[in-house]
Structure formats: structure tokens, C-alpha cells
Amino acid sequence: MKTHPSAVDWEQAQSLFSIVLCIDQEFRIVDASDTLKRHIDGLDLQPLLTEAFDISRPSNVTNYESAHGYLDSIFLMLSKDRRFAVRGQVVETTIDSKAALCFFGAPWLFWINSNCPDVRLGLGDFSPQDVQLDQLFFMSTEKKMVKDLEQLNGELTQARTELERNQAAKNAFFTQMSHEMRTPLNGVVSALTLLQDQMLSTDANKLVTFARSSAKNLMQVTNYVLDLSKIDATEGVAESEPFELEELVTSVHNIVAAKADEKHIDFVTVCQAGMSAYFLGDLPRLRQSLLNLLINAIKFTDEGSIHLKVSQINHPDSNQEMVRFAVIDTGIGIPIDLQELVFEPFWSSDACSDGRDRGTGLGLDIVRRNVQLMGGHIELKSSVSKGSTFTIDLPLPRHVPDFSANLGHRKPPIENAKFAAHVLLVDDNETNLMLGAMILESLDITVSKANSGLAAVKLARELGPDLVLMDISMPDIDGFEATRRIREFASAQQMPIVALTAFESEAERLLSREVGMNEYLTKPIDRQKLAEQLVNWLPTKAMIDDNTQGANENHDGLVELSILEELQSQIGKKNLETVIGKFLDEAAQRWELLNDAIAAEQTKDCARHAHTLASTCKSFGLTQAGTQLAAIEQSILSDGLSNMEPIEEARVMLQNSVARLRSSVESLT
Amino acid sequence: MYGLINSSLREMITQQFGEDQWRKVLEASGVPEDSFLTMRSYDDTITFSLAGAASEVLGAPVDACLEMFGEHWVKETASKSYGVLMDATGQEMIEFLGNLNALHDRITSTFLDYVPPEFKVQELDDGRHQIDYISQREGLTPFVVGLLRGLSKRFGNTLVINDQRSQEVSVGEHTVFDVTVTPA
Fold first, then answer.
1. Which end of chain A is more exposed for a tag (fewer CB within 10 A), N or C?
2. Could you tell me which chain B residue has the CA closest to the CA of A131?
């Protein structure tokens, strides 16, 4: 049997609730708790509830009956003088056996704090179980917590700002140092290049070769040290340009082989058989990463060998095709506890106390950053005294080169290129001007010189050169401003401007494009690189010869050998043979398709096959066959298949041209 | 202890002795954190390490440092962050001390694992009062002395501690103060 407590008395009610009101059927307050009496005057006079309070919730309570309808609702009431407020609930009770209402509640703490902060409430104004004070404490603490977090955030922001400021100062220092170091090196390398063109004795030539190689090495070391600032400055997106794997491996090999030779270490590069020849990727970053790994390998290997192995793998999770570059050495190895550290910037092993040059400690950090930027992964496996293997896996998509597109703009082989052009060379450094002019003149270019930005603008206007080679940093107006002014009277097509800067910076490169420069080159002037760029903008002697003397044809004119030679210079003989093999197969198939279409009298298909065949024939130097097939295409489109005679002539022409192509390829050296 | 205590300690040293001294205290303490979050619970050793380091760096006994901290707690931390609650707890010192347990009880709903100390106030002869401080933590009696001094300043009273003695307890500490609180 359940037992219930008897009704609570007045004292017990006040103990449970600090605010208690007894309301009779006339809606008068017949009694009020002590807390209420302390804060509101006149309650002893038994006023109507609506005379003592404004009832804000429920909003339509005006008398006993209406209040009785809200027994399960919260009541929010403000004293008439707006100095006190209460919140609570009304229950039905009896006073002297008559029905009555009783309000149980508490001071409405948050309203009073907000509206009457001078009203002093004590802990005694709240019953112990009232959670409003607990809430107040919690909210005060939370407010303080927010302040803590704001302060912490401020400290972190400040620390980041300082870090960025320091980083910017470091970058500025590196950039300045780059400029200061490259300018004199530019002079040395350029002068040695020119000196080597002179008639020198064998011994002198050897010495110059040695000096030039050393100067280039020094330039490489300078670049190596400065790479970090470049990475910081260009943090962001890796480039995705087509490159030839073999060219990459060969260039890396050529740079590193001499160093390996010096230490009598075998250096072997191995590309997996059957790999694609071309890929899309960030060649400069990839080359830089491989060079850093290989230079490290040589540094820490005293005997044995270094291998660079390139292979195609599938990503273990995504099955995506990846290219793996593994640099394997038989050097001193890295203890397991240091293997994580070697990728940290500025880290170099103290254990290495044999006087070996430990470098800047930036190389592997640069590699790690590069690999991450290219979306790849680097791994190290190493055993002390046995050697190390650094493995880079990169997601490099294969690239299928469009050789025919390259042929649209025929360039002569760069080596020994000669130009028939007038170039305005701009540099505030007299030595650079002299050396630059000598290099340009060695390419048969007529050179005008300007030693300031203002002079450059004036001479560009007066002389109208074919191209301007523009230094960036100059005392009066810089190369950007000079370019802006030149662009006011000469467009990029009319007068190409190539920036020639002492230090490479992504921001500067972007600005050079914005102001209307056509290209961006870094000093020192490398004659071959310069020629490679100039050939895009300037007429060469070979082109002029072509125009005046006709194409370089073989004796029967069926194959243009110059086109084959150019293709060979671009992709190498082996690749050329492969590509031509494919072309011959495809040409045979296409001819079959053309014949089938003729038999089926499908005019449009005939024209399409003739067009495709004409286009590919021209790409491989079968110009006459191509021209004839193009004529057939036009004839079919205009007259249909009424005249079959030219098609038969084209068949004979194609047959002879193909035979000539086979023999021409074999005879290429 | 909660971050509130540690950050208050940092605030006191920074305000009264400067940022450099705080750096030295932090370094001497071996505490790795420099910032404390009010509502996060930290290991007690952090607070005691900071107090010990403050004593070493500032060249004052640990008790003096804790006492100074008690005063700072009332004047700065409690009054500025919990002013309304401090006001509600009492308008004069003895009333405040009498209600202190109720205040601490309400704190337990915010700091969930908080075990508050207990204060008992008894009126003695000659306007004196006995204040019993009972805590499960050891070593914080000097902090309570600072609290009493801070409260007397808050309410504009003069406080004389006539006697202070420890009672034997199995856990923590129990200190009995005999005080005279008079209007200034």
C-alpha cells in the first residue's frame, strides 16, 4: 500500500520555494513568502495579483478563472515597479476550505540581473534546489572559458604573424643573396662560354672546360641552397607539363655522373623495359628531387655503386598507375632512429664527424616538399654500413605527344642555330651587357644595348627591334615598367619581350605575364637555352633559306628529310622508328578503309579517310602524297566519286613515298 | 585542479611582477603549457609546480606565495568573473563565510569532479569567530589565509587572525582559525 506525505505546510513550502503566493478566488494575494515581501512593498495589503504584478506569461491571464486554466504552465511575472520578477508555477489548493491558487517559484534571476543589476539577491533568496544560480555560475565560467580561447587564439595569431614575418625576412634574404651571387656567376659562366668558342690550344680548352664545369657546379650549389626559398615562395600547385622520361634520366645522369666518377663510384641508371616514353608532370621539381637524392647518395657513398631505377607500378590501394624512382646506394646508411629525422629541415647528422660536407640540411626537406606537392610519396629504407634506398612514387599520367602539331611550326635544330634578327638587350650591368651582346652576336643577331629602363623604352621606339631581352631590376624604371611603356606602342606580336632576371620568383614570373612580357628567362644566359627561346620569336637563317630556296627535299621529293630530321631531334631515332612503324601500319589500314568506302560509294567516308591520310602523310614528310590526297578529298567533296583516276595516281604516289620513307629513316644518322 | 586556478596564478604573477617573471616561473616549473583553459581539469602537480617555481623565482616562501594568491583570487578572479555570485553569497564577511559552502555546492554542477572544501563558522566571545577549514587537499591553508585577507579587504573589514592550528585528520587537512573581524 502506497503512502503519501500529507500536504506541506507554509513553512515547508517556503523552504522548498523562495517565492510563494496564495491567491484567493477574487484573485487577491492573501499571503506571500518572506523573500517576496523583502523585495516588493505592499503585499501585506492583499492586492489583486494584477495590481502587484504584470503577468507576461501566460499573456491573457487576468483573473482567477483564467489563471486556473494554466495550471501546467510557467508563469513569468514582473513587479509593477519593474524592480523584481518571478518565475514559477500555479497549483490549485484550498484556503479555509475554499478553493484557491498557490504560486510556487523563485526570483527570475536573469531578468533581474539584466534589467536591475543593482538589486541585490542573496543565496537565501533561492532555495537550494533552484538551479538558476548553478546556471549563472556555469555561464560565468563559460564566459571566462571563451575569453581563454580568445586569448589563446590571439597568442596563436600573433605567433603565426611573427613566424610569417620571419619567413618573409628569410625569403627576402635568400632572394637578395640569390641576386648577389648569381650576377657575378653569370659573368663567369658567360665569359667562359664565349672563351670556349675561341681557337684555344688543347690544354687551354681543357682548362676552360674545367673552369666552366666548376662554375656551373657552383651555380648548381647556389641554386640548391636557394631552392627552399623558391619552394616557399611558390608553394601551391605542381605544374603538369609533358616531358620525356629518357631526357630527364639522361640530364640527371649527365649532371651527377662526373661527381660519381670523381669518387670512383659506379653510377647506373635503369629504366624498366616497355615504359611509356612521355609523361605529364612537374619536370623541374622532379629533376630537382632526383638530383638532391643522387647528390646525397654520392656524398655518403665511398665505394660501391649508386643506381637510379625507374619503373612503372600500380598504387596498392587505388590501382592507379604510378612511376617509381628508386635511388639506391651502397653508402654509410642511416640508423633506424634517425630515419624520420632526415626529412626535417636543417637536419644533418652529428654522427657524421668524418669531415664530410654535410650540406645545408635542406636537400631532403626539399625533396619531401616537392614529392608531397606532386601528390606522391617518398620512402626510405636503410641499413647502417650497407646503404640506403630512397623511393619516390609519383602519380604521373602518360602523355601521347602530338607530333603533327609540332610540325606546324617548323623549327630548325637548335644546335648551331643562326638568326637573322635585331635584338635590343637591356641591362644596367655593363659586364652583363657586354657578355650578353657577345652571346647574341655569336648567334648572328644584331644587338642594340640599353643600360636603363628609360633608355630601353626610347630605343625600342626608335629602332623597332625584332625582340627585347629585358633585365628586371634596374635603377630608374624596372623591366616591368619599361615593358608597360613599350606595350603602349608595340604589341606582344610586334615586339616580343623576354624577361632576363637574376633570380627566379613565381610572383615575378606572374607579373612579367601581366605586364605583357612574352617569356621569362633566368640568368646566366645559357646560349642554347636562349636559342631555344629565340627560335620561338625570331626568324632563323634556316627559315629564310627555306623560303628562298625551297624545302630541303631528297632527290625525288617524295620525302622531306628536314621534317624527319627535326622529328628525330625531338624524340630520338629509336622513338622515330617506332612512330613511323605505327604510321606505316595505320596508313595501310586507312588506305584499305578508303578503298572500302569507294566500293560502297560512301562519299563522306571517302573524304574523311583521304583527309586523315593526307594529314598524317604531311606530318612525316610525305608532302607530295599528302598534297595529292588533300586534292582527292576536295575533289570527292565537290564532284563525288566520278573521277577515279587521281585516286589511282595517289595510290602509286603513296606506295612510292612509303618505300622512300623506309629507306630515309634507315639512312638517318 | 581546474585551469581557472592556473590561469589565475599566471595572471597574478604577470600583473604583479611582469611577463618576464612569469616566463621564468614557467621555465623553472617545467610545466609545458603556457595557457590554461578555465574549465579543463589539470593535474594538481602543475599548480604545485607553478607555486614552487614562483617561490623560487620571486624569492619568497611558498606559503607567502599561496597567501598572495589567495588575496588575488578574491580580488581579481572571483570578483571579476563571478561578481554577481560573490554579491549573492554575502554582503559582509561573516555572512559570506557562512554561505560559502552553499556557493561551493553550486560550483559542483559546473566542475563535475570538484570536491569543495568545507567551512564552518562559529561565533565566540569578544567578537571573535572560529572558522574551520576542512579540505581533502593538503597544503592550501596559506591560500585560505590569503582568501580571508582578501575577503576582509572586499568587505572593508579589519581581520586579525588570533590563532591558527591544525587538527589531525586522516585525509587532507583541517585548520581552525580564531579570528576577529571588525569594521575598518
1. N
2. B106
